[in-house]
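Deliverable D2.4 — example input (structure tokens):
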């Protein structure tokens, strides 16, 4: 951006930067929505999210409400990469405030486009600006006064809007895919709950009723009786087996610092960060030989069994291509595609149980689920015929959701490739044609 004008960021503000409110846990639960650090770190853009609620008095309302277009910066983080993270508030159906570890930045729309500066701070250039003001003590953090003094590029406002429109359209499609997937996943989970947890078809037949939503052939696959098992009454002919017996669980490899090599050489090492956010500039690469089962590829089912219980213990369908699996993550190998889909939804259903297992062994904020835990945890497994019927019902949902995930990954790559080119002015002629 050598040919562009730069100004202190504060000259673009409509109002001075403001820190959010301090609200102790004891008063939370009712009142106005509040954006917390969890939302800032989990999302790029915030719009109509479920979040914590806090009571507010009239003075607090006057000073601390959010408005569509506000930028929110994380004041502090345990890691450098989180300090100063910027998200865009896109509005809400009701009033929303924000907590004390967040800085609100309200840009004057007559001078600049907030979405342009949101994307600026997603770029490597914007990240360099933020890191130039990060102070590292016990945790990494930024001060609002330093943020306001940053010299930021100020291209013409129409150009800012065009850049934000191109990038925003890609983010909108990614968000649409996320919402579609949430709906599809809810449909599949509801069917799993009905068949394999509540046993609705079995209970209906036991009561002499026709199972709801099932054709005659599918209904005939379910038994009309229950049997005793170590986990209570389960449908006749089904089995209570250890979770560990539902598939093959292969742990990732342990990597040392000397194993890592230049970026792009060998394969990327897939840790929990990559499961959540994909492969990026922070990802390590390695040429070391690994077992065939520790090499993963698009479509593999993975289970993160160690880390923060609330945020790390989760099942993932990997969509990032070939990689080397790091320890603390299982590659879940099923005999059939139907079994793989069943285990995927089973892990989703069991997540609260597994999280609680990890939390009970939590040390320094981390917990884990061991093979021994998985051998003790018994689950109900249906007959092969019912499993096949379930797969016929959910396979299309599963595949559509994964296709959406793959499309979103492609769109995110395109967005991240375009971002520096748009910000630098390299694609200015293309923008002028929009």
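Example output (designed residues):
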């Amino acid at each position: 951006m050598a040919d562009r004008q730069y100004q202190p960021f504060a000259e673009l503000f409509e109002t001075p930067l403001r820190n959010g409110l301090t609200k102790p846990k004891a008063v939370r639960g009712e009142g106005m929505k509040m954006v917390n650090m969890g939302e800032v770190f989990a999302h790029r853009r915030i719009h109509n999210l479920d979040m914590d609620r806090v009571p507010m008095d009239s003075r607090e309302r006057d000073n601390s409400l959010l408005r569509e277009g506000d930028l929110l910066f994380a004041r502090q983080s345990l890691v450098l990469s989180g300090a100063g993270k910027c998200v865009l508030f896109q509005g809400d159906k009701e009033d929303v405030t924000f907590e004390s570890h967040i800085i609100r930045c309200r840009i004057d729309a007559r001078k600049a486009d907030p979405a342009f500066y949101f994307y600026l701070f997603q770029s490597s250039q914007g990240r360099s600006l933020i890191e130039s003001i990060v102070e590292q003590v016990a945790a990494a953090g930024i001060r609002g006064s330093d943020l306001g003094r940053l010299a930021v590029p100020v291209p013409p406002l129409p150009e800012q809007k065009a850049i934000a429109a191109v990038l925003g359209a890609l983010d909108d499609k990614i968000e649409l895919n996320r919402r579609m997937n949430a709906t599809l996943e809810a449909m599949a989970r509801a069917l799993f709950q009905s068949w394999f947890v509540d046993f609705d078809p079995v209970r209906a037949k036991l009561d002499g009723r026709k199972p709801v939503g099932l054709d005659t052939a599918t209904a005939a696959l379910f038994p009309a009786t229950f049997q005793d098992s170590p986990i209570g009454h389960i449908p006749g002919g089904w089995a209570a087996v250890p979770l560990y017996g539902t598939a093959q669980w292969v742990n990732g490899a342990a990597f040392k610092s000397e194993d890592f090599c230049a970026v792009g050489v060998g394969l990327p090492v897939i840790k929990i960060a990559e499961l959540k956010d994909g492969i990026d500039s922070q990802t390590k690469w390695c040429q070391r030989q690994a077992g065939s089962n520790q090499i993963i590829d698009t479509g593999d089912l993975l289970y993160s069994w160690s880390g923060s219980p609330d945020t790390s213990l989760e099942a993932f369908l990997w969509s990032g291509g070939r990689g080397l699996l790091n320890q603390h993550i299982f590659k879940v190998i099923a005999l059939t595609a139907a079994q793989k889909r069943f285990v995927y939804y089973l892990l989703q259903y069991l997540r609260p149980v597994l999280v609680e297992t990890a939390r009970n062994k939590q040390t320094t904020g981390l917990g884990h689920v061991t093979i021994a835990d998985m051998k003790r945890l018994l689950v109900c497994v249906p007959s092969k015929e019912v499993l096949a019927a379930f797969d016929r019902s959910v396979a299309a949902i599963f595949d559509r959701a994964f296709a959406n995930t793959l499309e979103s990954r492609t769109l995110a790559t395109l967005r991240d490739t375009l971002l520096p080119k748009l910000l630098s002015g390299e694609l200015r002629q293309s923008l002028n044609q929009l």
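The mean pLDDT is 92.
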